Sequence to fold (333 residues):
Amino acid sequence: MAVDRVRWGILATGGIAAAFTADLVDMADAEVVAVASRTDASAKAFAERFGIPKAYGDWASLAEDADVDIVYVATPHSAHRAAAGMCLEAGRHVLCEKAFTLNSGEAEELVALARRHDRFLMEAMWMYCNPVIRRLKALVDDGVIGEVRTVQADFGLAGPFPPSHRLRDPAQGGGALLDLGVYPVSFAQLLLGEPSDISARAVLSDEGVDLQTGALLSWESGALASVHCSIHGGTPVAASVTGSAGRIDIPDGFFFADRFVLHRDGREPEEFTAGPTHGPRNSLRHEAAEVMRALRAGETESPLVPLDGTLAVMRTLDTIRDRIGVRYPSETD
Fold:
């Protein structure tokens, strides 16, 4: 697909949709042409806020809009399968928020749909597109810290969140794991791939979602990863990777890192920081730029966020949920 400006449609009007759209409208090679919500009022308010010409009170109208090249799906993850699937069936390319779906079965269905229709599909794992994280991975892959021994990562919010909040709602895929835990798991698997064994424990809410989950992932190489997520305790949101010859620390906000520190035996610590052109650390532009690069190149998936990697993360999340006893109402035997 050869295009000058990529025409975006935004499906959903919540906080992450607003953050992504705010970055898109500032990019010279992007054009936001339509937005859809479940109600006309919400879609029109969002359109007026960002100067978007078309506003739809239903998802199908956006999916069928031939003026849209790619749809950004920003609904709660419980609706990702339906929303993204509708867009792929209609011939749209799709960038879908994370967690990609409720479970690996739904994820496999979306990937199969995209491949059948020859459409681009990517999980919106912006961490993988972050230049600082890409530099960290390159150093690890180059063996700068030797063979990877351990990975540690956490993501916890202090809360408290009332039972009515989406994070506590089983019908919306609530709980810490899919909303927050997807980041530590994705960080570990970026560096080590899919684990060979998984153990996990959790504290569950009265509604049956996880308030706090800890998991230990292991690999045949002997590497281990300790990952933790919580919606009832604020954590440093830090990460580290330790190898046989050194360690890399991301001291805070690892999933939108703007710096990390490399420690190597017998050397002074080295700090790597985001460059002046990388923008603010909460910028979603790197993700948008990668999507548009791939579309212009005629690619149906991104090498930075490959679909097989997304499927592997979803399998790990499934296994963790199985270990802690979390099942959502829409899931059947």
Observations:
- The mean pLDDT is 96.
- Residues 99 and 244 are 32 Å apart (CA to CA).
- The first helix runs from residue 15 to 24.
- The two ends are 41 Å apart (CA to CA).
